[in-house]
Amino acid sequence: MKYSIVYSSRTGNTALLAEKLADALPAEERVYLGGPDPRGEAAELIFTGFWTDRGGADQESAAFLERLHNKKIFLFGTAGFGGSQAYFDQILGRVAARLDPSNTLAGSFLCQGRMPPSVRQRYEAMAVRQPEQAREWIENFDRALTHPNEEDLKRLGELALNVMS
Q1: Are residues 160 and 133 in the same domain?
Q2: Residues 155 and 142 in one domain
Q3: pLDDT tens across 102-140, in order?
Q4: N or C, which end of the chain is more exposed by having fewer CB within 10 Å?
């Protein structure tokens, strides 16, 4: 089955996932690998990667997804905040809800991703006004530093191979 890997990555986390997909899937079946571009629409199966912005896909990825019709789509991405599968499922649900009904959701994967140091600095500055919430957010920031990790990458590769078979 011909496929494309189309992704947007602000911090490199989603790019790392896209690279894993490219390594795990047969290169001879790949039509396109790169950022949102009409060339990525030529495949029957489109692995579409996004970074989470305000609880959904980033604007560039969302616009790409809205252009797709009659495709199999596998959503993948990263979210700085989280760690809970329920939270990830909410994000994936919001993104999937924006797909044209002619498309088929072939699968999805979302994991935590590290955030830039400026985010931690913002959380530390919050500690004066909201110490408890800031503490929780700093702990989440620190947990995110190790993601995407090998386990995340392995799981994504397995899911992608299942979709291709």
Answers
A1: no
A2: no
A3: 999 999 999 999 999 999 999 999 999 999 999 999 999
A4: C
Which among 24, 17, 26 is positioned nearest to 48, based on CA atoms?
Answer: 17
Do residue 33 and residue 109 come from a single domain? yes
Q: Report yes or no: 49 and 22 within 8 Å, Cβ to Cβ.
A: no
Residue-number span of the structural domain to which 53 is assigned: 3-113+148-164
Structure tokens at 24: 């795990």
130 and 54 share a domain? Answer: no
Same domain, 77 and 120: no
Q: How far is it, in rounded angstroms, from Cα 59 to Cα 77?
A: 13
- In the chain, the DSSP E strands lie at 3-7, 30-34, 45-53, 56-57, 72-79, 104-112
So what's the pLDDT on residue 83?
A: 67
What is each CA distance from 153 to 128, 136, 157, 164, in whole angstroms?
A: 37, 26, 6, 17
Considering the domain architecture, whether residues 52 and 87 belong to the same structural domain is answered as: yes
Structure tokens of 86? 């329920």
> Does 140 share its domain with 154?
no
pLDDT value at residue 101? 98
The candidate with the shortest Cα–Cα distance to 74, out of 163, 144, 165, is 163
